[in-house]
Amino acid sequence: MDYTDRETLVDLRRTLHRVPEPAWCEFQTTARVVEACEDIGVDELHVGPDVVDSDARMAVPDDETLAEWIERAREAGVDESLLEQMAGGHTGAVAVLERGEGPTVGLRVDIDALHITESDEADHHPAGEGFRSEHEGCMHACGHDGHATIGVGVLAAVADSDFQGTLKVVFQPAEERVGGGKAVAESGHLDDIDYLYAVHLGLDHPTGEVVAGVGGFLAVSHLLAEFEGAGAHAGAHPEQGRNAVQAMATAVQNLYAIPRHDDGATRVNAGRAGGGTATNIIPEDAFVEGEVRGETTELMEYMKEKADRVVRSAAEMHECTVETHTEGEAPSAESDEALAAAFAAVADDHAGVDTVLDHDALGGSEDATYLMQRVQNTGGLACYVCVGTDHPGGHHTPTFDVDEDSLDIGVDALTDAIRGVAADRP
Amino acid sequence: MDYTDRETLVDLRRTLHRVPEPAWCEFQTTARVVEACEDIGVDELHVGPDVVDSDARMAVPDDETLAEWIERAREAGVDESLLEQMAGGHTGAVAVLERGEGPTVGLRVDIDALHITESDEADHHPAGEGFRSEHEGCMHACGHDGHATIGVGVLAAVADSDFQGTLKVVFQPAEERVGGGKAVAESGHLDDIDYLYAVHLGLDHPTGEVVAGVGGFLAVSHLLAEFEGAGAHAGAHPEQGRNAVQAMATAVQNLYAIPRHDDGATRVNAGRAGGGTATNIIPEDAFVEGEVRGETTELMEYMKEKADRVVRSAAEMHECTVETHTEGEAPSAESDEALAAAFAAVADDHAGVDTVLDHDALGGSEDATYLMQRVQNTGGLACYVCVGTDHPGGHHTPTFDVDEDSLDIGVDALTDAIRGVAADRP
Amino acid sequence: MDYTDRETLVDLRRTLHRVPEPAWCEFQTTARVVEACEDIGVDELHVGPDVVDSDARMAVPDDETLAEWIERAREAGVDESLLEQMAGGHTGAVAVLERGEGPTVGLRVDIDALHITESDEADHHPAGEGFRSEHEGCMHACGHDGHATIGVGVLAAVADSDFQGTLKVVFQPAEERVGGGKAVAESGHLDDIDYLYAVHLGLDHPTGEVVAGVGGFLAVSHLLAEFEGAGAHAGAHPEQGRNAVQAMATAVQNLYAIPRHDDGATRVNAGRAGGGTATNIIPEDAFVEGEVRGETTELMEYMKEKADRVVRSAAEMHECTVETHTEGEAPSAESDEALAAAFAAVADDHAGVDTVLDHDALGGSEDATYLMQRVQNTGGLACYVCVGTDHPGGHHTPTFDVDEDSLDIGVDALTDAIRGVAADRP
Amino acid sequence: MDYTDRETLVDLRRTLHRVPEPAWCEFQTTARVVEACEDIGVDELHVGPDVVDSDARMAVPDDETLAEWIERAREAGVDESLLEQMAGGHTGAVAVLERGEGPTVGLRVDIDALHITESDEADHHPAGEGFRSEHEGCMHACGHDGHATIGVGVLAAVADSDFQGTLKVVFQPAEERVGGGKAVAESGHLDDIDYLYAVHLGLDHPTGEVVAGVGGFLAVSHLLAEFEGAGAHAGAHPEQGRNAVQAMATAVQNLYAIPRHDDGATRVNAGRAGGGTATNIIPEDAFVEGEVRGETTELMEYMKEKADRVVRSAAEMHECTVETHTEGEAPSAESDEALAAAFAAVADDHAGVDTVLDHDALGGSEDATYLMQRVQNTGGLACYVCVGTDHPGGHHTPTFDVDEDSLDIGVDALTDAIRGVAADRP
Q1: Per the annotation, does A176 bind a ligand?
Q2: Is residue C1 part of a domain?
Q3: At which positions is Mn(2+) bound (chains A, B, C, D) (predicted)?
């Protein structure tokens, strides 16, 4: 197949859209990407545990969940030996193209989907065109099907070009849970990268608009606190309980009350909380699953430390024990101007692009920041670009969709930028 | 079948034990009880909406749940016309025996089961003997299979005796949720009852011990509060949320802090609480499901009013709406001494009984109190008796079981007591 | 002066009423009592540190407060050497009368006043008659002026009687703060007492009614928790504060939410709380002053342990330190029936008594319980009696007053009871 | 006296330093300023109610406090007719100089002091030099003695110059409580001002450094919430109380938990909180005194609305009533660049100035913003300048002091700037 062809790319995107898979369960997705890379003919192709620092993965689902998604992939015909390589949730891939002397350029795309049920209304394009999610309750509602497609498209286009140097395309799992970035950053694959681009579609920018340097990522940490107390009959022996729901409620109240910080914006959310078993039983178990954020990594760390203290003290107050886990994490980051400028220059020349913004702040979080930071810390430059796309519904909603015209723009502009920085070493 | 026969009763109890059904879903159980009543030959048999004041039912499950249990009963061969009568969760039965002039005596037994998974250990008698629950996750863990059996046994034994008067045996649904008592009490069936007995097995009394007059029921009310706020992205727009989990946490903290009362014991428990959808979304929905109790009905009402205020104010504080429902309720009650004495006298004569306690306090709640109160308010007497039974596990635990020898004791003692009060009009 | 004379006793009571003094500041009161004891001619008279176990005193005011009240006593002409003995708040006295062979009988009366401003309305008897408090803001609003007078009256009357044995009258300081009982109990003076009476006027019983055996004392513990955090400018550097008011608020919320107990009634109250310095400073200091109670001493201890945990965890949650002090404490207690019966018998014979109640429950707290417990633990009997008195205003209100007729009843009945138990050894 | 003379100004500053007076109690201060204005010979001098919109004053102390400070001023010899004009806390003054055709230029200085006890250490300059505060517990710890002096100095210097136009110097009371700005803004005196300067000494800038345009004022609102419930005996009848301390604690917990806002920084502080009367009484009264702030006035309003909701709901939850008052308030503001530039230009020429900063953010709050906003809204320009001064202790601390050399700099630079803008109309 010719992945420099627009129709092929649209087909690929729709194929991926049909089989959305959540964090660390991207078995079919990875298989399809691997197939494309082999078609294109890369020089190295990393899959399985070699893609990441396995221990640095966060938010890996339990064995039962992994088994379900593996079984689904098996039924869909994924090759058994590839499934074996990906055992334990080792999804994702790193494809390497070696084209002689020149710098090493990286492109990071993410590939996971969300636990959202896709709209089945006829005017929702994937539903109307017949490529709606076949995994009910799971959906590509953030465009990662498009990102993976762009990754493949760039790989094919660069392979087909006068590019001199090395290209690494990273197909990263588990971005939605901010669970994969750290593991990729610590894999070693980035340590020789001179220039890294990461790309996102949409973000409320229309088709034809691109942002050359996205910044303002909020550092984020997801935390899970599980309280364990002791049940007791609420009528007969209330004093024998150690009330985990009281601990949870005390924690929630005080989490939101962590002091604001003069150095910049902070956030906290007890996004999910719950506990207890029956009306007449003093609650024995409870949990809070939440997140803290900061305009800088330091501010996130400040919030995280406070949150940890709140949770521990709330447990102690109600004689419960508590276990806390970091479920996902990402630092803040900024795009390097030189790399953004290189992208802006080539994007501006593209027929489909009518507006180029030099900079925009994300105002959210994303674990590409781990990769960007890694490259920046080892002497390289990193840049996060946004390729606008008309999206009818907002990101993370059941009617989200991407305008497939933006795939071309993304592939072309990134390919040109990669060729450019390889040649000009900004 | 001869329901005055011990073996028949044990068989009946085991049959019922195999098919435990939760509140208002006792379709097979009711069918089996109806079959027995018809076998015995009662003069009136009420089933369907006629059993209760339909609108006074509490804790009725949603249509989907009802449909599942009806389907299960249909597959088990329950007669379609009976299922139609019970549509909408109208389970339970009232059987009437008319035996000439004499007072009207009532016996109330409850028939529902619990959402508990029964032990499958070999030394758990029902598992070892092959009559473990066939409805995985549902279990007769409080002896209501035995209560229903005793109801049938007493009906058969009284029918077979010199009893003069009218006997009404009430097979009440939904006691575990304190959801059925009020609906039965307001059905009209009790309004001509002169003497009412209610019976419970076990309660930590061994086989051979009976309690003639149980009292000290805590009045109870189950409440469900559902908060609705508005979601928002926790990183990008925390100010746009109206946080239902904050409302829930504020409610939980303040529910437990309702002032103690000088008139007697009170209780409060937020037994289940939860809310939210994702770590990065300001929680839009949350709930508290709990209970309040009082040593008297007035004390329970005091707690209920305070709890309602707490829940409403917590919602208002966080700009949420809240809907509150009473999911179940029961007043406090005391057994009439004259009726207890009548039972004590005959129980003491029974060969299997070695200890008769005149009085004991339950320390828990039970909606037989609605029936007792109704009878007492219309000029009758009411008494709650306990028939001890060796139970290896505690009530409401996976290893609960009853000693089947206690079924005989219950049937015999109650039959004699009913005959006695009909003759002597205490 | 003849303290067996009614007029003399009324004068004494009015003298004491004029100079109310709070806990451990009863310098003038003690001086006046000492003068009376010397007049009567006791065999031993303990004053100063010898009255109590000095270290076991609770709620002793700070040096400045002590100095103010000492100065006031000095100006009123109290003997300098007596003031020296009482230095550091060693008020109170133990008077001993030795009258040959016979049991040792004790009488405990309390002598301190309250921080209440006495009514100056003409129809408030002390105001109308000119013996209203001369210590503005301090008042005998609980009848301890009468109690001290009864102590003196009994001492004189027993001295003047055929009593055989030893009489110890304990004039106890600091009852209102439950701060003096423990220190007296541990002084050693009680260890040889065979029979102990304690007496209280009023308690909503009218003149002519007495209660022979008061019980139902709630065990109580007063706690003071002082939080210390760190201030910071609330606008410029909120993150630099460690917020003591947040710690206090978290503590208050969770104190009231300590679980109820199946063994009986408990109480908790954060009666005073506060903190902070200015609207724009993160609060650096805060406190909670409160109490816990229990129907039994064990229940009070349960509450105290929970309260301590709440306070410590609340401090930890907000990175504050906390110091907690027990400001006062008293166990629960019951009167011995034999001793109550002895009192009831003689009281019933008294012309001024028309009703004798065998028993009544206090429903409050009082640290005579420490003394009662001490005597009971060392093999003696103890009994708390109430001598009714018409009191226009409630206890602890600005219009409280005692009917001086009840002083006679108290002196006579107690004298007869003491003579009786010495003779009959019940 | 010649107020263009440096020694005279230093004397004036020291005189004012000796008699610090809090918000709306600046009776001696105003009298001294009035004397100076009369000496200089102004064309109009407004004192008393004419200075402000009387009803728009915030944080006016109670009559008793006003009376104390008036009495103190009377004893210090302040003229009785002036005191009468200032009755009810109508302090401050507006002095007007008319010098022919030209724009109207305003200068705002604030004159109140703080409730801080001034250091008496010899190395604290005012203590060492003998002009330490004579009003123990009150102190000019924020340099307003210097501000008032600069106001007088500029008035004298402009009067003595070639200035063409009208100059209004506003001596504003009650800045420390953000209580006076609004009342001055709504007085009408500002409505014809074309150019307004406000000035502050120090702010961590050393002598020789000036900031031409201060901005970044946080909008602020001080709130006082007073809860009233019902007392009850905590042992005997806890259920009869309506607990104001519980309401307060619930409010505090939820105030700090008001959601952060995406539009910018917000702040909240429950700076003072308290309540209750005695350990054994359910608390009947409580209060929270605090503040909210926002990077913009809208953000402050957002916080204020939320805070109000929290306080009302907390009261309702515990069946208390609550009264809330706004005790002080100020919007955010920015300095106009043109006016800042005019000041920067002349300041740069001054021999004593070595550094001129165009802009700095205050990061705190100040009610000059009301005046700035008023002038800006009526078509004028406004600018807040900072004149650096070496200050040994921080603002609002007992060792704060100003370097008197900075008085000259302030007077000279402001005089030149005022002359400049009058001539050049930027």
Answers
A1: yes
A2: no
A3: 142, 144, 176, 200, 396
